[in-house]
Automatic annotation (TrEMBL):
Protein name: GNAT family N-acetyltransferase
Domain N-acetyltransferase: 11-171
Top-level division of the source organism's lineage: Bacteria
Source species: Streptomyces cynarae
Length: 184
């Protein structure tokens, strides 16, 4: 298992682990199911997904799934993942997907997480980060805009759902940005 840990001093991102399953299930609510997972989780399903994520880390696969962690005890506040290959993406584009548990929303944590994974994606060779959002998901679109993403094209998912794209060029030099997240 990779020991990647990113932090901006407020949140930390590290790979999902099996002991995150209970906190994830406890934090799951209707918006998270609707916008991110597509169905309520089960302990067996969440653990299988986390094992898959760990395998992706171990084999340098196209998926990098992180837990969004807060506080000195690194309480799991949500998840964020990168997909370096996905349907509809051009070479160099990286899909970003995220979700926070209800008690952690409205604090700017998702924006911080998006900024951290964007920097990580750039360090791994990503050229553009893409956030694909259903038009009704105004909260997620707001996170994308706050993180410096700009509106792009509109597509439809496999099920016909319209998706608005938000794109951020990862090749922009952030080394001189004092607010840029740094590895922990």
């Amino acid at each position: 298992m990779h020991e990647v840990k990113l932090s901006d001093g407020i949140i930390a991102l590290s790979p999902l682990r099996l002991d995150d399953a209970e906190a994830h299930l406890a934090g799951e609510d209707e918006p998270l199911v609707r916008w991110l997972s597509g169905g309520p989780g089960t302990r067996e399903g969440v653990e299988a997904y986390i094992r898959h994520c760990q395998e992706q880390w171990d084999t340098s696969g196209p998926l990098r799934a992180f837990g969004i962690r807060v506080g000195t005890d690194e309480t799991l506040a949500g998840t964020i993942d990168l997909r370096f290959t996905a349907e509809g993406l051009s070479p160099g584009q990286v899909n970003v997907a995220y979700g926070l548990y209800p008690s952690w929303r409205g604090r700017g944590l998702a924006t911080r997480a998006v900024l951290l994974v964007s920097r990580y994606a750039a360090s791994e060779g990503g050229k553009e980060a893409v956030i694909r959002v259903e038009p009704e998901n105004a909260t997620s679109a707001s996170v994308a805009r706050r993180a410096g993403f700009t509106p792009g094209k509109h597509t439809h998912g496999e099920d016909g759902t319209r998706l608005d794209w938000y794109i951020r060029d990862l090749r922009i030099d952030t080394q001189n940005d004092p607010g840029a997240p740094k590895p922990a």
